[in-house]
Amino acid sequence: AACRCSRDVTLWELKSFWLRPMTYGLLLALSVVACWSFAALVTTLSRGSPLPEVRAQDDPVFRFLSFDLFLGGTGTLLVPILTMSLIAEERRRGSWETLLSSAPNPGAVIVGKFIAGWCQWLICLTPWFVLATALKFWSGETQTVAGFLPWFSGKGLDFDPGPVLGGALGLAVI
Q1: 121, 134, 136, 135: which is closest to 168 by C-alpha?
Q2: What are phi and psi of 150, to 5 degrees?
Q3: Please, are residues 122 and 172 in contact by the beta-carbon 8 Å criterion?
């Protein structure tokens, strides 16, 4: 019964997450930040590296998914925003006491809210990984088509997926 309660709470929180206007503002802001960081990455890639050997920490893909200003700062601001609303919203509505007293176990409610908050965090991070995947198909080079229209040129960037997967795992457990 506790597992069912956790699932119900998780589904309720995820449903209410998509019904709040704040969600769309957060996703828009995160997409803009991710695109801004991606533009800096593509600019770096299109210039080429002046060094014949690049250290691992200087690799642009590593910097894109590491704890830099964009991703680290975003996570530092976003995680409290997402988690604050999980319990505060119930208290504001006056349903927190009812929820805890009607559930088979208060721990099941907390687990359900934790899973919902974690899923919300992962949803907010999807622009970063969509853009990292785009690097497999585009290296940042452009060409002009019809004399005025910039278009992608060149093959995708060949990079080690290890830092991307490591960054994904690290961000998932932040």
Answers
A1: 121
A2: -70, 140
A3: yes
Of the listed ranges 16-30, 32-46, 84-98, 105-119, the least confidently predicted one is 32-46
Retrieve residue 109's tokens.
């409610």
Q: Structure tokens of 66?
A: 């590491």
Strand partners, 144: 150
Residue owning tokens 């690290």: 170
Helix orientation angle between 21-47 and 69-93, rounded to the nearest 10 degrees = 170
> What is the reported pLDDT for 51?
46
Task: Supply the pTM of this predicted model.
Answer: 0.70
Q: Enter the tokens of residue 127.
A: 């622009």
What's the pLDDT tens digit per position in 88-123? 878 888 888 887 777 667 788 888 888 888 888 888
Q: Report the alpha-carbon distance of residue 127 to residue 41 in Å, rounded.
A: 14
Integer Cα distance of 96 and 23 in angstroms:
22
Residue 140 has a pLDDT of: 67
Are residues 62 and 56 in contact, defined by beta-carbon separation less than 8 angstroms?
yes
Average pLDDT for residues 128-149, to the nearest whole number? 76
